[in-house]
Amino acid sequence: MVKKMPKKDVVIVGVGWGGGIIASELTKKGLDVVGLERGQERTTEDYFMAHDELRYAVRGELFQDLSKETITFRSNSGMRALPMRQYGSFLMGSGLGGAGVHWNGQLYRFLPYDFEIRSKTIDRYGKDKIPGDMTIQDWGITYDELEPYFDKFEKMAGVSGEENPFGGKRSDKYPTPPMKHSPQMKMFKEATEKLNYHPFTVPSANLSEPYENPDGISRAACEYCAFCERFGCEYGAKADPVVTVIPVAKKTGKFDLRTHSWVRRVLHKGNKATGVLYTDVTTGEEIEQPADIVVLTSYVFNNAKLLLNSEIGKPYDPSTGKGVIGKNYAYQVIKGNATGFFEDKKFNNFAGAGALGMVIDDFNGDNFDHSDVDFIHGSYLSLTQTGKRPIQSNPIPSDSPTWGKKFKENSLKYINQTLSVGAMGASMPFKQHYLDLDPMYKDTFGDPLIRMTYDFKEQDRQLAKFTARKAHKILEEMGADRVESMEELGPYNITTYQSTHNTGGVIMGDDPNTSAVNNYLQMWDMENLFVVGASAFPHNSGYNPTGTVGALAYRAAEGILKYNKDEEMLA
């Protein structure tokens, strides 16, 4: 028998960055909020002296249990999809804070071009620049409209940085100064300036100095230990939901956080959501949580999965291009990079921080003329010093033997005598790339898994080759004795880690026929249901997505408060 809980103002599904921001903003205004998180509760104390590469980076202490919940994958719709049984291409978080706990902390703003990508591309190059099966669309919001929310997120997180010479106009400077510059970063800066590029310090949610944010949350400065990506920060120096927004929500007394709560359905009647159905994974009990407003703030795949399993919104059909739920899945193109080997220079590559680095934006967005290239958008190019840990880092020349004495010699020699310049390439949506429910495979509760259909396209191959050549040139200018770079981008490989930057599936826009949510992330088909996260992105930019996720979450919180007051669709 299903247990029915007392009705609340708002129920949130997933308590990571999106859920934490929504909870903080709504409870400060007096709303009673329930936050449902299917993983365990976490605090900074859990990470004291937890610099254990095997436990966290290799065995995935903070990641989702793939034996209970995973995705299925196929390269095209003519193939049978198979479940992802071990972590590779991306790392889905589990527990309070979600992927916001194990992220690196690189926090960029998307460019003005991103939010009006179709219009701006056509205006400059004409319609023929966009391939027929590429489904880019404007976001239904401009950079200028979103800018105040970027500023709010950066001040909450205490972002350390300096102005991007190619970025959109800022209303204020970063709240804390940029991170320290290591010798490697200085080399990159000097080389790119000689090439007439415009380097700047990576915007970092790893604090450069102690900071107190507008909510009164104080955090310590980064220690440059380099245990960021795949790890929680024991100092609280890396902004994550557990040390920033969630404590603010808890302090109000209006936030009821329930961990180990696996939400399986959004309940609805007519065109209104009435609450959610979830299972307490510690007891197996099924529980109904009624609410006036429902907010999905879980990861990209789970937002789409919940809507599809709850039969909310029209599923996307790739054969007709109709429907919106599952549409415009996009990833990231980060293979266009290069590695330089230095025979007579040694670096301290073990030290660092998740967002320590230098970057150029000269080849991102539409910051350069695309008339003579066979792709749109672009990529940043960066040298980051995130920490070369011994188990997972073994940079050796490609002609080295893969075992024996010479292999060991090269492994020891080059671990601190290599530098890499990496790309974070934009990912454009295509008609053939989408999310839907798998007809065969199910999760631990018997609900269909989400199925991902995706592969690299010619757009991606051309972009990767372009950025690889640029990265190669930078390393030559830095004085590398030997440079190896990608020559051809092969098929997408889900078994090799690339980034956790999955986007799309519940995209935003200004037309219910081509988008699932409006620019407050309010569902067109169900006005008291909001869907927050990178699932709202109609494409993925040449950046890490968290800054834009945070900005959209703050705007969604504002929209929820407006809806709670007036109970009508937001314009």
From TrEMBL:
PANTHER family found in the cross-reference section: LONG-CHAIN-ALCOHOL OXIDASE
Sequence ranges assigned to domain Glucose-methanol-choline oxidoreductase N-terminal in this UniProt record: 142-329
All residue ranges annotated as the Glucose-methanol-choline oxidoreductase C-terminal domain in the record: 435-553
Family per similarity comment: Belongs to the GMC oxidoreductase family.
Protein name per its UniProtKB record: Gluconate 2-dehydrogenase alpha chain
Span list, region Disordered: 161-182
Database matches in SUPFAM superfamilies: FAD-linked reductases, C-terminal domain, FAD/NAD(P)-binding domain
EC number(s) per entry: 1.1.99.3
This protein's UniProt keywords: FAD, Flavoprotein, Oxidoreductase
Gene3D superfamilies according to UniProt: FAD/NAD(P)-binding domain (3.50.50.60)
GO molecular function, one term: gluconate 2-dehydrogenase (acceptor) activity
Entries under Pfam families matching the protein: GMC_oxred_C (PF05199), GMC_oxred_N (PF00732)
InterPro entries named in the record: FAD/NAD-bd_sf, GMC_OxRdtase_N, GMC_OxRtase_C
Organism encoding this protein: Virgibacillus alimentarius
Top-level taxon: Bacteria
